[in-house]
Amino acid sequence: MTKPFTIYFAGDLFDHKHLIGNAILASYIEKCSNGTYQCIVPQDLEQPVGRGVAIRNNDLRMVLECDLGLFNFDGADLDSGTAVEFIYAKSLDVPAVLFRTDLRSRGEQEDRDPWNLMCSFYPRTQKVQFNGMAWYKETAVASASLEETIERLYTRIATRLVEALDTVRQVPPLPKGDQAQIAAMYRWALRFAGSGLETLADEPGYVEQVITAKAEKGLL
């Protein structure tokens, strides 16, 4: 059986709406892709005791190890942790999909992305944007129950995201198969993050194993 592409699913996870929304959408992405994609949702990771550097390192390690990144850019202001994770992914040339369902428009870009321009214009990145309120109302009117609304709405959203993931993973990598350059890039990403994450850069075979796994899937 072909191994699924792993996706680091980044976004708010600080209240029940975000937590259950993340979990539902992740399950529908896996379902609508027929198992092509497996979402790694940070809220479901085995978290170290307490908060702080251990959790930061665990999340950044998952960004580095996953095949693709999915970044929820909802909110009046972008979640700062999600923005950091997105830039970390881009420093590693990880294929990424940004998605926003928020009907509010923010940022300095007229007629362009409704978020801070410093999170725009990166290569190997696809965007999915729609009015979540409008999609919900359309779906609710056409459904006989809340359960049917959830099924219809999340299937529609997940299908759009799967299409974007399919597209972005076909974009050629920037290093273009230069294994030495890729290995150096991954080691530097571990070292510049510091605070204990740099120890993985010197762990025998770790970087090579991550790179090989991605290369076997045609991502590097």
User: What letter string, H or E per element, gives the SSE order?
Assistant: EHEHEHEEHHHH
- Cross-sheet strand order for the largest sheet: 2-1-3-4-5
Estimate what percentage of residues fall within beta strands. 5-15%
Number of helices: 7
On the 0 to 100 scale, the average pLDDT is 93
Textual characterization of the structure:
- The structure is a single chain.
- This protein is an alpha/beta fold and 220 residues long.
- The chain has one domain: Rossmann fold (3-Layer(aba) Sandwich).
- Helices cover 46% and strands 11% of the residues.
- It is built from seven helices and five strands, in the order E-H-E-H-E-H-E-E-H-H-H-H.
- The protein has helices at 16-32, 53-65, 80-91, 132-141, 146-168, 179-193, 206-216; strands spanning 5-10, 37-40, 68-72, 96-100, 125-129.
- It has a five-stranded parallel sheet, sandwiched between helices.
- Helix 3 links the parallel strand 3 and strand 4.
- Helix 4 crosses helix 5 (146-168).
- The longest helix has 23 residues, at 146-168.
